[in-house]
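Re: the 424-residue chain
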Amino acid sequence: MNKRNVIIKNASELVTCKGFEAKRGKEMDELHVINDGAVIIEDGIIKAVGKTEEVVKGIDESNYQVFDALGKTVMPGFVDSHTHLVFGGYRAEEFSWRLRGDSYMEIMERGGGIINSVRGTMEASKEELIELGKKRLNSMLSFGVTTVEGKSGYGLDYDTEIKQLEAMEELNKVHPLDIITTFLGAHAVPKDYKGKEDEFIDFIIEKVLPVVKERNLAEFCDIFCEKNVFSVNQSRKLLSKAKEMGMKLKLHADEIVRIGGAELAAELGAVSADHLLQASDEGIKAMAQNNVVATLLPGTAFSLKEEFARGRFMIDNGCAVALASDFNPGSCFTESIPLIISLATLHMNMTPEETITALTINGAAAIDRADEIGSIDVGKKGDIVIHEFPSYKFLPYHIGVSTVEKVIKNGEMIYDRNKLFENI
């Protein structure tokens, strides 16, 4: 039996999230649920989707690994489309400072924040970063994530940025999760370049970006477009060069101060603009008109005790909204998809249906993979999660707790929660 040949049948709800492109506005509320549903996967690719009776009719099930999903919900694997999963060192002390009332920007000004993580990442070997990355990916997997975006950005120099990207390249080879890499060399201003931000952008463009592109170490280029970090003009310069070189674009935009990051994302045709806590009405509408995915990171707003991004307004104005964890060592040290679901539904006025869309097909669109993953459609990868409860409505209802029972990646079961407790 080919272990990548799988039948999942009798699902109480088969939540297909059907589609091959981002869903916008009211479309996000439609999950295309099949009751008593079934999926057939052959050689890791979805071959049939529908009612169990119709899908398995005439099929010799002895040629497949069969999962009976009676009383369970079957969904696409989650796509975590914004993370910083490869880094060295932690910042627990800074978190305690924030609990005492220090702001994120105040901590950055005293040498904390991103620069603190840069030191830890510089000191870590590539092998150490790979081992740390494996553990973090395993945790993400347990929450039902099957594809993850990973950014560099804790080097801010040539050697460490390349080391981070090489670590993710190796992780993508040895770990079952797919990792989509993003070059974020302009994540903060290094100490030696304070007051010389234009020179740093030139350094990234001239010395680092060409090597990243030549060695195919990253598919996307990103920048922290923010007050006291990189201006709109500096961001435009770097991203325009990256686009000219054939890279796809992302932006950390309008997170702390509204400076026009959302408008820049629309102008440049970025695949996504992320954070957007302070994005203007005009910027949001421009993103909708230019098909830029709005990737919202409610875990970061929650951790920083900031107002949440206006997900409801964005959806109502025709945006394609994605959700992601923003897993990182400083502003959001969590890989918990259940937490993101709870925050989106309870604090961002998103419906359960919109939230699931945002973590599946729209998450896939945010990394330009909506034609391959993010839904249970014929021809896509067999990336499937089986949840323990009979309806997707249990995901926000079981607040902050994972409902994931099994994870199937490319037609292969790679996680079974029940086996973790076999000897208890």
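Residues 90 and 413 are 32 Å apart (CA to CA).
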